[in-house]
Design goal:
Largest sheet: none
Mean pLDDT: 96
Helix content: over 70%
Structural class: mainly alpha
Order of helices and strands: HHHHHHHHHHHHHHHHHHHHHHHH
Low-confidence stretches: none
Number of strands: 0
Strand content: under 5%
Distance between the termini: 64 Å
Shape: globular
Amino acid sequence: MAALRDCKAWQDAGLVLSTTSNEACKLFDAVLTQYATWTNNESLGGIEGCLSKLKAADPNFTMGHVLANGLELIGTGRSVRLDGELGSAVTAMVALSKAQPLTERERLHVSALDVFARGQLPKACELWEQILQSHPTDLLALKFSHDTYFYLGYQRQMRDSVARVYPFWTRDVPLSSYVKGYYSFGLVETNLYDRAEKVAHEALAINQTDAWSVHTIAHVNEMKAEVEKGLKFMKETEKNWKSSDMLACHNYWHWALYYIEKGEYEAALTIYDKHIAPVCLASGSILDIVDNCSMLYRLHLEGVKLGDRWNDLLGVTKKHTKDHILLFNDVHYLMSFLGAKDHKTTEELLTTLQELARAPHENQQLSLAPHLGLPLCQAFVEFENGNCDKAVDLLYPIRYELVQVGGSDAQRDVFSLLLIHAALNSKSKAKQNLARCLLHERDLLRPKSPMTERLIRKAAAVHSMA
């Protein structure tokens, strides 16, 4: 790993940090490096350990506060609306910034987090972009905007934001190969699969432990339904990425999806029980929670018996019932409540979301709730209650707008699968016919998909019985 940068090194890079503490500057670099590489580096003390030492090194270092608060907010597990401690931390950061002679770049960082905390995600991205136009190697602005575009479902912006600064990330700039990985993911999410795979392999040729570039290739194989290629790749590279603790669970989720695609449910559950569930129950990370909910729900749609797994998951999802930070998160928590047959918590999530959506104010996610978030959640509820026609009526009109709830194409595929299963299980001939149409569409997009072939056979059987 490259030497951690002190005050002068940051200044030489054109990214002045307003502190006189070299220790604070180095710890800032240590945290940023771990965030950028999806890995808690225990030799550095992990992210939490470094943040704690960073605060002690210079309690009034504004960019230290930006980093700490930004990671909490970007994690989407806490909000200033419900968490007084986080709200106070953001307020203190803003006050500190006003009392100090900061650079314009640092002030923009503070402003971006301030608006993010209030739910103005697109506005936060605009401010990060302002930073990147004059400071293209500001990795914090690049990564915060990349993650936020992902939450917004802004796929082209996620790709192009990295493209605009890409030429400045030459080999001598620390962590430059990881920027290739970010760009490759923007390419995969805009359906440029071959280019995405090429750029991801370039990144891996420089650093084979780059779990995010591995993740891009996992997406390419998933979207093209190249199941055997995907399984082989994950197995061959596992030793390189499994220690990236913030992303390993998600990469294992991709690995398990290939088995679900093949109909090899026991193999998928083995990965779930060994590498996905234990990590989530220990970390409580929102990405890990989403992976758990999504995977179990896909298996549930396939008719797999899941034992106590939903109830185990309820222990980590229930505390987020009233969060309503991202609609994408909400619908995943809902899957776990429905799976565990927890009707009270299901009702609580829907009711509290409805209440907030009546007066969204400046919150971008809540403004989407009435026409996207709530119908999507209600479709899951109707399906679980056996009202397949109603589920289709709710989901079909918004299917092309669901990109706005964020996540990746691979993650949102669970919504497409719900629509297909609801249409297939409908009593209406028109909706059964819709299911067949949707499967033709899926078949052309992902040729030779074993799951699509299974569902086409099921649709044919339903048709012949009708």
